[in-house]
TrEMBL record:
InterPro entries: ATP-NAD_kinase_N, ATP-NAD_kinase_PpnK-typ_C, NAD/diacylglycerol_kinase_sf, NADK. It is found in: Cytoplasm. The keyword Transit peptide does not apply. Its EC number is 2.7.1.86. PANTHER family: NAD KINASE, NADH KINASE. It comes from the Eukaryota. One of its GO terms (biological process) is NAD+ metabolic process. This is NADH kinase. Gene3D superfamilies: Probable inorganic polyphosphate/atp-NAD kinase, domain 1, Probable inorganic polyphosphate/atp-NAD kinase, domain 2.
Length: 347
């Protein structure tokens, strides 16, 4: 559905006419699908669930639906042209819009980022935020967590306010680093915003690979690894799986990357080199030494197969993503960036 309210039809007598004419004209609403939990309708689900879990999941479904309808109602009142698309229905790069608004959680924002270059900013709306009271109430029965929305600047409670600040030019997007990946010198089409996991397709199998850190002038010691794979994250992704695995949070606007060899087998004296950072002028070069492997980008939805002998190179030399960040995160940007003291060991 395309909802149109041409800017040219605004009344010049309106005191905000010039401001409105300068406002954004085209907006894409990028949506997490309504039925994102098809397991709800399966017979197997009914055999293991409880009434409380069922009500919780059905409520999550309804809250998300209401959030989408709410955002659409707000957009109907604004002087913008807009249309909506399900994240499952988009396969081509997003062009010819001034702003992308995602409605879902961090996963939906990550999915949209794969279709964006650095010219179009993005705003995330967390449609189903976790409720602390709810988590505490059901902590002994099931996990009642909802959506974290770490990168989402809005919820239904402040969506109109945040949107108005963007349309009026009062809010400025931040530039988040993304990763550039190549396999055998061929650049991949997706730029990860969160992280990359390179591993054997079977999680119980050992991943064999070697890697080194390089720049234009030199290369580090070659490290041969047997492990559960290699994870590399951006600053934005350093608070996700990387942090859960024992990594450290990085300043959100840092251009460094963080890498970690997952569960290394008998690293010995080289243990300290299994985890570190990569500066913007460096890259990590990996040689894959298993018959089968997979590069997972920002989760499991985007993946590329690799095979024995393939060379994978990862760096931060990728187009940045312009994101309107949550207010609390903007306040943190000016704080002392103590985690920047973590640097890659000299090999």
């Amino acid at each position: 559905m395309l909802c149109v309210r041409p800017i040219s039809q605004l009344s010049p007598s309106n005191p905000n006419f010039m401001c409105q004419r300068m406002a954004m004209k085209r907006l894409l609403l990028f949506l997490k699908p309504f039925d994102a939990n098809p397991v709800l309708h399966s017979d197997a689900f009914s055999r293991v669930t409880t009434p409380q879990i069922l009500r919780h999941l059905e409520n999550r479904h309804e809250v998300h639906r209401e959030a989408i309808n709410f955002c659409k109602d707000i957009l109907q009142q604004k002087h913008v042209d807009w249309e909506s698309v399900s994240r499952n229905d988009l396969s081509e790069p997003i062009t010819n819009v001034d702003l992308v608004v995602t409605v879902g959680g961090d996963g939906t924002l990550l999915r949209a980022s794969h279709f964006l270059d650095e010219s179009i900013p993005i705003l995330g709306v967390n449609s189903d935020p976790t409720q602390v009271d709810e988590v505490e109430e059901f902590s002994n029965e099931f996990d009642a967590s909802r959506s974290t929305g770490h990168l989402c600047a809005a919820t239904v409670n402040n969506f109109e306010q945040v949107l108005d600040s963007i349309l009026n030019g009062e809010a400025v997007p931040s530039k988040l680093s993304r990763m550039s990946l190549s396999v055998n010198s061929e650049l991949l089409s997706k730029y990860p915003l969160n992280d990359v996991l390179i591993a054997h397709p079977c999680p119980a199998s050992v991943s064999r690979f070697s890697f080194k850190i390089r720049n234009e002038q030199s290369r580090s010691l070659l490290l041969n690894c047997r492990s559960s794979g290699l994870r590399v994250s951006t600053a934005a992704g350093s608070t996700a799986a990387m942090l859960s695995a024992g990594g450290f949070p990085m300043p959100i606007l840092s251009q460094k990357l963080q890498y970690m060899v997952r569960e290394p087998i008998a690293p010995g004296k080289l243990y300290s080199f299994m985890h570190g950072t990569i500066s913007p002028d460096q890259s990590i070069e990996m040689a894959w030494l298993c018959n089968d492997g997979v590069i997972y980008i920002d989760g499991s939805h985007v993946c590329y197969p690799i095979q024995y002998g393939d060379i994978v190179e990862i760096s931060s030399k990728a187009p940045s993503l312009r994101v309107f960040l949550p207010h609390h995160m903007m306040n943190m940007i000016g704080a002392e960036e103590t985690s920047e003291q973590h640097t890659h060991p000299k090999l």
